[in-house]
Amino acid sequence: MSFSAKQWLTKIHDLPLPPKVRIMNVCGGHERSITMAGLRAALPSNIELIPGPGCPVCVCPEEDVYAAIQLALEEKVTLVAFGDMLRVPVNVSKQAVRSLEQAKAVGADIRPIASPLEALEIAQRADKSQIVFFVTGFETTTAPVAALLAQGIPDNLLILLSGRLTWPIVDQLLATGQAQFDALIAPGHVATIMGSQEWAFVVEKYHMPTAVAGFTSESLLAAMYSVLRQLIEKKCFLDNCYPQVVNEQGNLTAQRFLQQTMQTVDANWRGIGIVKQSGFQLQNSQQDAKLQLTDYSKVARQRMGTMPAGCDCAKVVLGNIYPNQCCLYGKSCTPRSPIGPCMVSDEGACRIWWSGGVHNDE
């Protein structure tokens, strides 16, 4: 039997909850669903829902964005990237080009795309002209790129890869012993690719209630009810509340493509630093734009990995503060003129909160 959102809310309200419960939702898509459905206001007031690190645009290293901008400006290439990346600012002077969008405005050949297949089509139509595909995202986005690579790409298509795995940042956050949450809602789309069992470490290693959720209010509330029950009954386990598309093993074909074309390495997260075994790296060096073209990510990047002055996006990503607790939120940083990456992406918590009507610091 499946319950409606209203029924799940009733079941949650009927639970003998402790005075305060903090639940982190890893995925930016979850945060968008929670905010747009008004779930925070509908839940008991002693339940805190904390946005987590699941926004790939927000954690893409500043030096990688800078490298993409410089490749587009300085090399004779066409650069293609997922649309959200075009507005992400980098740390340069106000007179310099600060984003791919600005680089495009001054004449660079930059094209937003929505699918890896679009990058392939552009390369095939370009004949011998050099195309660079700036790839950002987590496992869900990186797997289709791996499939494209496994099937073979034209010689004129190079990959500037900045893909990340989701679970290592959660592991690192919990390993500090300073995580400010009591239970975890794991990302459904990532689990679709990698399997729900990838999140078993949260229960086994840290004894924290965990549930995989989809993106409807019903699935999210079912996951919340599950972890709340686990807390109350002191019985932690991994619950799959998105069985329509998620199983224990995940998509084995997608995983095989990732293993064939990429390897995992220690990687930088913007404003956070190096997270062990959290990045994807191409196995074929002939397809790597950093190796085949000038690697601008290592040139004069004295502030590598940092956020702009006054920006607290890293604290938001790690769940240490809420978006509207950043001193720039809604003042100098808005969706129209973003300073930090969390105000750019549709999966960034700051952008989501602003779009959801939170325009003050209360």
Structure at a glance:
The chain is an alpha/beta fold and 362 residues long.
Report on this model:
- There is one protein chain.
- The chain has 362 residues and is of the alpha/beta class.
- It has a domain at 5-55 and 167-241: Rossmann fold, CATH 3.40.50.11750.
- 37% of the residues lie in helices and 20% in strands.
- The chain contains 16 helices and 11 strands.
- The chain has helices spanning 5-13, 28-37, 39-42, 56-59, 62-74, 100-105, 116-125, 139-151, 167-175, 188-194, 200-206, 217-233, 252-261, 289-292, 313-317, 349-355; strands at residues 21-27, 47-54, 77-82, 110-113, 130-137, 157-163, 183-187, 210-213, 238-241, 262-269, 273-282.
- It has a 5-stranded parallel sheet. Strands 4-3-5-6 form a 4-stranded parallel sheet, with helices on both faces.
- Helix 1 (5-13) runs parallel beside helix 12 (217-233) and helix 2 (28-37) runs parallel beside helix 16.
- The chain is globular and about 65 Å long.
- The model has no long low-confidence stretch (mean pLDDT 94).
The CATH architecture of the domain at 5-55 and 167-241 is 3-Layer(aba) Sandwich
Assign the CATH superfamily of the domain at 5-55 and 167-241: HypD, alpha/beta domain 1
C-alpha end-to-end distance: 39 Å
Strand order of the largest sheet: 2-1-7-8-9
Number of strands: 11
Question: What value does the Rg take, in angstroms?
Answer: 21 Å
Q: Under CATH, the topology of the domain at 5-55 and 167-241 is which?
A: Rossmann fold
Low-pLDDT parts are none
**CATH class of the domain at 5-55 and 167-241, anyone?**
Alpha Beta
Sheet having the most strands: 5 strands, parallel
Indicate the structural class: alpha/beta
Could you tell me the strand content as a percent range?
15-25%
Average of the residue pLDDT scores: 94
Q: So how many helices? A: 16
- Coarse shape: globular
Helix content: 25-40%
